[in-house]
C-alpha cells in the first residue's frame, strides 16, 4: 500500500486498544491521509460507545450532549426504553429488537411508514407500557399505533391487562392495533375485546400492519 509501516502499525494498535478499552461499538478513522513527506495524518475520527457499557465509563457518560438527541429519545432513555424516532405516522410498540425491525419492514410492505423503533423488552410491566404510550402520544405525527408482541416471557393475558391499565393512565388519542401471539393469547384477545377501549385485535402480523396503515391513512 505504500504506507509507512511503523506509523501504520502504531495507529492500528491504538485503534484496537481504544476499541477494547472503551467498550466501543465503532472506532473509525476517515480519512487517513498520506502526506507528500510520507507521514500519516488522521484528519477525522468517529467513536461510538456501547450504551450498555457506560456504567463502566462514567467519565464518558458525562460527555454526552443531550441537545444533539431528539427530545423524545431523551425522554425514552429516562424510562429505560429503547426508542428511535423516525419520520412516519404509525407508532410501533414491540418486544424484542428483531421483531421491532420486522414490524417496521412489514408496515412499509403494507404501504405505511413507521414513526419509530420502540422495544419495550421481554418483561414489560404496566408502568413501562404506559411510559411507552406517553412517548408515542407525544409524537404529533403518530396517527395509529401497532402493538406487536410475542408472548413468551411476557404472557399475552398479562400484556392485555397491562395495555388496559396503561390506557387508564395515559390519554391515547389514536386507534391501537394489537397483534399478540404466544402464551395465553386467546385470553389476551378476549380481555382487549371486552375492555371497551379503542384496541383493535389483529389475527397475525400482516393483518395488523394492514389495519394500522388503513387507520393511519384515515387519521
What this model shows, in words?
The protein is of the alpha/beta class and 219 residues long. The protein has two domains: 5-64, D-amino Acid Aminotransferase, Chain A, domain 1 (2-Layer Sandwich); 68-217, Succinyl-CoA synthetase domains (Rossmann fold, 3-Layer(aba) Sandwich). Helices cover 42% and strands 22% of the residues. The chain is built from eight helices and ten strands. The strands form four sheets. It has a four-stranded parallel beta sheet, sandwiched between helices. It has a two-stranded antiparallel sheet with strand order 1-4. A hairpin with a 5-residue loop joins strand 2 (32-34) and strand 3 (40-42). Helix 5 (126-138) packs across helix 6 (156-169) and helix 6 packs parallel to helix 7 (185-193). The longest helix has 17 residues, at 5-21. The protein starts with a helix and ends with a helix. The model has no long low-confidence stretch (mean pLDDT 90).
Features:
two-stranded antiparallel ribbon; alpha/beta; Rossmann fold; four-stranded parallel sheet; 2 domains; 219 residues; D-amino Acid Aminotransferase, Chain A, domain 1; 8 helices
Can I get a quick summary?
This protein is an alpha/beta fold and 219 residues long.
Major sheet details: 4 strands, parallel
Q: What number of domains?
A: 2
Helix content bin? 40-55%
Strand/helix succession: HEEEEHHEEHEHEHEHEH
Named CATH topology of the largest domain: Rossmann fold
Give the overall shape: elongated
Detail the poorly predicted runs: none
Strand fraction band? 15-25%
Number of strands: 10
End-to-end CA span: 58 Å
Q: Helical segment tally?
A: 8
For the record, the CATH class of the largest domain is Alpha Beta
CATH architecture designation of the largest domain:
3-Layer(aba) Sandwich
Structural class: alpha/beta
What is the assigned CATH homologous superfamily of the largest domain?
Succinyl-CoA synthetase domains
